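input
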Amino acid sequence: MDAATMQTDRLAALAPHGGAPVVTPGSVPRHHPRLPLRVGTRASPLALQQTRSFLKVLARVCPVLHQMDVFQEHVIRTTGDAVQDRRLAEIGGKGLFAKEIHEALMDGRIDLAVHSLKDLETALPPGIVLACTLPREDVRDALILSDGCEDLDEADPLAILPHGAIVGTCSVRRQAQLLHARPDLNITMMRGNVHSRLDKIRHGDCAASLLAMAGLRRLGLEAEATIALSPETMLPAACQGIVGITAREDATELRDLLKIVEDRAARVAATAERSLLGTLDGSCSTPIGAFGQLLPDNRLRLSGLLASTDGTFLRRGEIEGGCADAARMGAELGASLKAGAPASVFA
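output
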């Protein structure tokens, strides 16, 4: 009997005859998964798409879950979604995309939650763990130009932007790399979901913007990208393109079930990239990039970046090693980038 069958058999035991589970207060230990499984998600179209895609993957691997209709979607509005007129760093950092979701997990209102891993804080609250990472989507950033731009030179994609062009982004990582390459550009804050940002570009609020290719692809909007920028041109955010699933640490059987859809390459990369972030103690106001790539020989190549928001300071580094050393590599590269960096970078 394989792991998926064993776990779904245990879940099926909670739902006699394939119907609604019979659960009475205190009848199921906290570590045992109750049914239905309540899945927390943010309210944005991208978050909902990622959640539903994850549930389809889980149902394909464990068909009995689909047959039993055990998933219950819980949309949770987070502070990060509610406040759109200020940068995240000004209102408490990217942890605000998960604060209310973490509270729902710990209160037992939901059993697991689906996140864009790049938006999840490096240090999770006590009692919550990253239970599963899904296969990584396209890691690149997309440059999206408004109407009226000239023909693109793919060899130098940023050269397409007119001198002094206004570029909309809320990412200090993107801002720093843009200004390092093109100090003449003017950066304006642009927040909102994917669709609202695309609308702002179409309406001429700015000459260009950047969005993650992963989000565009998941929403079927990849055609909106003028060009996908290589990591050499624009190093992505740590864990960009990876969907992560969190659960309570003591939900042991649920965590065992989630291991069935775990993607090893994504886990290794995420471990290294989040270790780098943790070493740099980076916040939303510190421009940091990280990209871990598994090589054909089963080794890991980790690239990292630390910069000032105005782009006048930018340091990149790279390290290779065994996948088992992912956390150590992230810490080592983070320390290397941090050594000698201006204190103002971390202000």
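quick obs: The first strand starts at residue 37 and ends at 41.
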